[in-house]
Amino acid sequence: MSSATRRPVILDCDPGTDDAHALWLALASPEIDLRLVTVSGGNVGLDRTLANALAVTGLAGACVPVARGAERPLLGRFRSETAVHGDDGLAGVVLPRGGEAIGGLAADAIRDLLRGADPGEFTVVGIAPPTNLALALATEPALAARIGEIVLMAGAWGEGNWTPAAEFNAASDPEALAVLLGLGVPVTLVTLELTAQALVTPARIEALRRAGGGACLAASRRIMEATPPSRRMGGRGHALHDPCAVAWLVAPELFGARKAAVSVECGQGPGRGRTHVDRWGKTKGEATVTLPETLDADGFFALLAERLARLP
């Protein structure tokens, strides 16, 4: 695939077990020209998420710059999700130490990259609390014109997974999510209802084993095996949330989607972080957000196996 047809991407993450698979999928996909990885302290603390991002990209032999970002959301503090990701963020799977982060902060690195871009050139993928992205764009909103699409793994139209009302990334920094929804840039929101369809089961892990591959695919399998099954999934397995956002760019034919009006609740009560997703036009909100609703799960896992098998 020629460089002219590859999509320049900034990927904001907080590795995190599912972030690791998303990073590897992005690095293995010729449709994506990954220009920058930025990291916040969401799933576990920032020192750990940054080290994990460097280890994941390093294992893939990638030269993509990785930038240190926000240690806390716009308000309050991040709360780690160690029950799913483990204290180290990768469910106890040890990867070789990666390289070094670039100097400066993530928000500055994002702005520097966008300043030299053409209108609509970049796609931004956010699979973490969206603090870094909001800091970059709220302080220089004209740069939003350089972004053609923002793809976020965030939110739910039903029950949350962090609180009864809210999904983890949205709940971790709802003010930042509100900034992104208000930029006027096309947003695709990959919610819990979609990612629940990307269910990791023993049979799917075994299929990945048969795909062969190198160290990255082997590490991906070990992380899947070590991640505990979800009570929300009835103990049948766990959802592979973040790679769904990357797969949307790589293989949109795997998804069925509609437009919806979306807002996020930023109050301090029990509904904080809830995403109000109007799928049926019941409000007067403009349906500007693309909402993937269905996923060809077998096709998704086949894509993951085929692409990760290309990595070292």
Structure write-up:
With about 300 residues, this protein is an alpha/beta fold. The protein has one domain: Inosine-uridine Nucleoside N-ribohydrolase, Chain A (Alpha-Beta Complex), CATH 3.90.245.10. Helices cover about 35% and strands about 20% of the residues. It has 12 helices and 11 strands. The strands form 2 sheets. Strands 3-2-1-4-5-6-11-9-10 form a 9-stranded mixed β-sheet, with helices on both faces. Helix 2 links the parallel strand 2 and strand 3. Helix 1 runs parallel beside helix 2. The radius of gyration is 18 Å and the shape is globular. It starts with 6 loop residues before the first strand and ends with a helix.
Top keywords for this entry?
312 residues, 34% helix, Inosine-uridine Nucleoside N-ribohydrolase, Chain A, alpha/beta, 9-stranded mixed beta sheet, 12 helices, two-stranded antiparallel ribbon, single chain, globular
Helix and strand run: EHEHEHHEHEHHEHEHHEHEEEH
Report on the biggest sheet: 9 strands, mixed
What is the chains' assembly state?
single chain
Instruction: Report the sheet-strand fraction.
Output: 15-25%
Globular, elongated, flat, extended or rod-shaped: what is the shape?
A: globular
Poorly predicted regions are none
Structural classification: alpha/beta
CATH class: Alpha Beta
* CATH T-level fold name: Inosine-uridine Nucleoside N-ribohydrolase, Chain A
* Count of discrete structural domains: 1
* Major β-sheet strand ordering: 3-2-1-4-5-6-11-9-10
